[in-house]
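Hey, resending since the last one bounced:
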Amino acid sequence: MIRRAIIAAASIFVCSFAVPPAHAEWPDHPIRWVVPFGPGGANDLIARVAAEGVRKRLGQPIVIENRPGAGAVVV
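The structure tokens again:
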């Protein structure tokens, strides 16, 4: 039992050095957030409040796009 734990710990230790760290500069442009409902509704309000919190954490502007589908009866 101890032998398996030692082998598992050693393999995790070795694998942690095998994977290079990610240094991506993401996101490097404004984020487009698509809301599948019309503007002014509850879904739009929730998306805008959530986008404000995400914007603060990522430091990137978030653009909310309202694109209602056929369920919103686009005429």
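The first helix runs from residue 2 to 18.

Sorry for the duplicate.
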